[in-house]
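Q: Fold this one first, please.
A: Sequence and structure below.
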Amino acid sequence: MPLETTTDSELQLQRLAAEEKSRKKWLLVQPVSNTSMMVDSGTVSMPLNLLMVATLAGELFDITFIDERLGDRVPQDLSAYDVVAITSRTLNATKAYAIADRAKAQGKIVLLGGVHPTMLHDEATAHATSVVYGEIESVWTELATDIILGNMKPVYRASTLKPMTSMRRPNFGYAMQTKNAKRYSSRIPILATKGCPVGCNFCTTPTIYGKNYRYREIDFVLDEMRYHQERLGKEKVNFSFMDDNISFRPKYFTELLEGMAKLNVRWNANISMNFLHKPEIAELAGRSGCDLMSIGFESLNPETLKSVHKGSNRLDNYETVVSNLHNNGVAIQGYFMFGFDNDSEESFQLTYDFILQNRIEFPVFSLVTPFPGTPYYDEMKPRLRHFDWDKYDTYHYMFEPKGITTDTFLSNFVKLQQEVYKPRAIMKRMQGKPLNWVWLANIMMNRFTSKLKPEIYL
C-alpha cells in the first residue's frame, strides 16, 4: 500500500481549519428531477458521489444531507448554513438552479457540481458562487482553503486527477439520518474504477475524465465489502458497482472477481462487451456472485454502432455474450437506444426478435439524447427540438431521425415496449429464472408500458 505524503497546501488547510473558531455549516443537496417519466420514483440508489463529498467535507465542516428524491425538502430559509452544495445531472438542472438561485440570493456560498455543471460550466456559473468541474477530490484542498478564507473562484478544475488510492470509504451515515432512508435501495453502491476510454460520442464520461482510467487497489475494494458485511451482520450483501466501465482492464477485473468469489457477496455492474464473449469471464462473474449485468447493446444495426464509436460492441458477439452469462446464472439488463438516423421500422422488429430469442431478462428502452458537452450534442444541436433540460431524461423525443417520420417512429417505440412486456412475452423471457426482483421489475414494467401513448414522449 503506497504511503501518501502531505503537501504544503494540505498542511496550510489543516492549520486554517484548526484556527477556525467554529466549523462552517454545509447543506448538501441531491435534487429531485422534474421529468414526467419513471425517474426518481419508488426505490432509489444512494447518491454515492454526494456521499463521498459529505465524507470528505465532514472532516472540516458540519454537514446536513438532503435527498429530495426521498421526499426530503430543502428549507426556504437557509440562514442556518454557510455553504449550499448541489449536485446536478441534466434532467434535474432546472431544479438545481432554482435551489442555487435561492441560496445565492440569501448570501450563501453556492457550489454546483455533477455532470451538467461540468459540461456547461459557463451556464452553471450564473447560478453559483463556484462550479466544481469533474470530481471534487482532485480540487478539494484548494476549494476548502478558499471557503475558509472566503476567497472563491468561479470554477475549480484540476490540472491532474488524483489517484484513487486516496479515496476514503464513504460514510453512509449521512444518508441514513433521514426518516425517509427506507426508500433507498438495499443494494450498497461501491466504486472500484473511474473513467472509460472507449469514447462513445454520446457519452459524458470522456469529457469529464478524458482518456484516464483509474482504479483503487483491489484490497481496498474488498476491505470495503467486508466492512459492510460486518456493519450489516451478514455475508450475502448486495453491491452495485457505480463504475463507468468496470471491465476495461481485464487483468484488474478478473483479479477483483477472484477476490470477491471468496466473500460470498452478490453484485451487479454496468459493463462493456469487450471481452464477455470469453466463457471463462462469464464463469468467473457467476462464481464471484454476479446476479445481473447491465449491458448497452444500444442497437442491432452495425452502421449505427459505428456512427457512435461503440467499438466494444460487435454484433457477431451479441448472442455469445448473452449465452455465456445465462449459462452461469447471470441475468441481463439490456439497454437499447432508438432515434438514430439509421433507424427504420425494421429496427424495432429486429430488437424485439433479439430480446425474445435471447430471453433478455430486463430490457430497457431509451430515446437517443445528445447530452450537452458531448461530441454528439455538438453534431446534433442544429436539429434539436428544444433545450428544456427537464426533458433530457432519455425518454423524450429530441429530433426526427432521417429514415423515419415522427409519428411512425413513436408509435413503433411504444408498440415495442408494450409487446416486450406483455404477460406472454415476460413468461417466455423469464421462464425458469429465479423468483427475484427482476420478476417484480417486469410486472411493474407491464403496468407502466400498458399506459404508454406516443404523445408522452414529445
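Q: Good. Now the second chain.
A: Here it is, same layout.
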Amino acid sequence: MLASFDAVLLARIQFAFTVSFHFLFPAFTIGLASYLAVLNGLWLFTKDHKYLDLFRYWVKIFALAFAMGVVSGIVMSYQFGTNWSVFSDRAGPVIGAPMAYEVLSAFFLEAGFLGIMLFGRDRVGPALHMAACAAVAFGTFFSAFWILSVNSWMHTPAGFSIDPQTGQFLPEDFWKVIFNPSFPYRLLHTVTAAYLTTAFIVGGVGAWHLLRRRRRREEASAATRTMFSMAMWMAVIVAPLQIFLGDLHGLNTLEHQPAKVMAMEGHYQSYPDGAPLYLFGIPNDREQRLDYAFGIPKLSSLILRHELNAPMAGLDTVPDADQPPVAIVFWAFRIMVALGFAMLGIGLWSLWARWRGRLFEDSGLHRAAVLMAPSGLIAVLAGWITTEVGRQPFTVYGLLRTSDSVAPLAAPAVGASLIAFIVIYFAVFGAGTFYILRLMGRPPVFDEPRLKDVSDGPIRAAGITPAPEQTSRRPQDPRKGE
C-alpha cells in the first residue's frame, strides 16, 4: 500500500509531524523559563511567599516539558541523515556550524544549570540559584537564536558561494550567514510568540482555578490570583507588540519571498491599482483563482505598501512550478492572525476588568481565558506552517528544490517509519502531556511542595552494600540428590 505514495511527500509529512510535535514544547518552555526567573527574582526581592509557591508549582511542569522537548528534538536531527541526506550534503557546510553551536553553547548552558535550578536552592545559596535560573532562561533564548538563524538562512540565504563541482553551499561570510535578511524579524516574532504562548497557558490555568474556587464558594489563593494577574499583564503588553512585529516580518517577507505573501493573501492575479485584503475565500490552484472571495478593496496594498492604490503582483507572475500550495498557506495565515487579535482582545478585556476592580471576579473573562489557553500553541503552529509551506517548492529558497533534497529512499521505508513515529509520539508524549495537565489541574497551595532529589535516599540499585554472606547451609532434603 505504501509503495503507491510519493517518497518525497512522505518525507515531508514525517518531518512536519515531528517538528510540529517538538515545536510545541520549546514554544512553551522559552517563555516559562523566563517566567520562572522572574518569579524567583520577585521572591528574593520581596520575600512574599506566593512567588516561591508559584515557582515551585511551575518548575515541576517546566522540568517535564523541557525533557519532552529535548527527546522530541533529537529525532529531527537524525532525519537530516536519513530522509534528507542530499540536503545535508549540499547545505551542511553552511548550516552545520550554527547547529553545532546551538548544542555546544545554548543547550549545554540550559542543561548545565538546569539541575541547580531544579534542586539547588538549599545547596548553593540564593545568588547562585538565581544565576542558574537566569542562565536557563537565557539558554532557551540562545537556543532559539541559533535554530532560527539556520531556518532563516534557508528562507533568505546569504554569505555563501556554490561549489560548481559538488553543488555544495560554501560559507563565505559567517556574519552574513547568521544575520541573514529575515533572521532578526523571525527571531523577534517567534520568541515573542513563545512569551505569549506561556502567558495564555499560565493565564488559562489561573482562570480555571479561579472559576473552580468560585463554584465552591471558596477564596482563591494569593498565588492563583497573582498567576492570573501576571499573565494578563503579559497579554496586554506583548499582544500588540507581536502584531507590530508580525507586520514588520510580513514586509520583510514581501521583499525577499513575494510568492509566499501572494499565497498568504490569496492573490492569484496582479492588481495594478490596489489589491484587496481577502478575509475569506477558497483557493483554487487549478483554475488560479480565489472562489467565493470576500475582501476589503485596496486594504492589502495599504497594509503592505502603505498606499491604497499601490500595485501588487500576483501569482500570475510566478511560474506554476515555483508556486507554493496556496490553500494551506492562505488558511494557516488567517488562523494565526485571528488568534493574534483574539489575544489582544483578551488583554484589553482584562485591562478593563482590572480598571473596574473585577479582574478576579469577572467569570466571563475567566471562561474566555480558559478557552484561549491553547491559543498560543495553535498560533505558533499556524505561523510555522505558513512560513515553511510558503517556502515550497524549495528547501533553500530559490536555489535548492525540495524534490532534489530528499534521500534516495523508497516510499515504503519512509512510510513505515512515519507510522512508527505517529504511534510512539502519541503514546509517549501523550502520556507526558496528560501528566502535565494533571499537574495544572491542581491549584498552587501555600508552602508548595518542592521537587525532591536523591538526597532523600538512594534510588539506585548499584552500589548498595550486599547482605552478609551466609556461613551455614540449609540442610538438604534427603530425598533430593546433591
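Q: Anything worth noting on the second one?
A: The chain has 14 helices and six strands.
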